[in-house]
Amino acid sequence: MKSKLPSWPEGQKIDPMVSDPEIAFTDFADHADYHPSLTDKILKLSQSQKHIDTSRKQRGFCGTKILDIAGWNIPEAQLINDRAVEFFKRTLNVDEAVIDDSWGNIYHNKDYCLPHSHLRAKAGVVYFLDPGDLDPDDPVSGRVYKADPRVKHCNAHEPGHMTRLLVPIMTPGTMVIFPGHVVHGVNPYYGKKPRITLSWNINATRQEGSAKSTFLKGSKN
Question: Which domains can be identified in the chain, with CATH numbers?
Fold first, then answer.
């Protein structure tokens, strides 16, 4: 980074959804100062079996998963980790936050993420690092979506029935928080450039045991 950046910029705005205030967004205007180093680091880590989750090899299991953001050992990773924690505390109006699990996802051509929710998490936080190659002929390619009848946006036509997706617009520097139980996924991505996101499972108190990634068998993405 060019200089030390604050964990939470002064005046940083949080925008809850009107229909679903437990889902909220914030956009970091200073992202250009730390994205290059973060991108370079996650791509380098993806070349090492030591840092990736090798248990999920199928294409629909959310691309290549790079574990433990705080353990990437660069200030940019610690900064975005701290911002995810602060986002959780400010949105849920709590004084404490404990990360149960964290990871980065690299999507390559034809990767996607099956619908799922996050176990052991009061809330999930996702940060958009690089959208990859946008397709003007397929505007939902590679887009994250919520598909859950408990989300009011999704059941707007009839309570209890999921009749439309919540497909938020996320650009580099956007961070979103949502309840861990909300079902979500990522549409198939078609592009040559990697699409990169970062994710956290966060609680107000520490959970017993440890997070294990066994997708579709008591897993998290």
Answer: 15-203 (2.60.120.620)
pTM: 0.91
Hey, which bits of the chain come out as E strands?
15-16, 24-27, 64-67, 98-107, 113-116, 123-130, 144-146, 174-179, 184-186, 195-203
What are 117's two structure tokens? Answer: 């929710």
Spatial separation of the C-alpha atoms in residues 193 and 197, rounded to whole Å: 13
Say which amino acid occupies 59. Answer: R
Distance, CA of 159 to CA of 150 (rounded, Å): 8
Q: Which neighbouring-strand residues pair with 124?
A: 178, 201
Query: For residue range 17-58, what is the model confidence (pLDDT) as tens digits?
Result: 999 999 999 999 999 999 999 999 999 999 876 666 655 566
Angle, vertex CA 199, rays to CA 87 and CA 27, nearest 5: 45
- Taking phi over 0 as left and psi of -120 to 50 as alpha, with beta for the rest, 151 belongs to beta
Q: Under a CB-based contact definition with an 8 Å cutoff, are residues 140 and 194 in contact? A: no
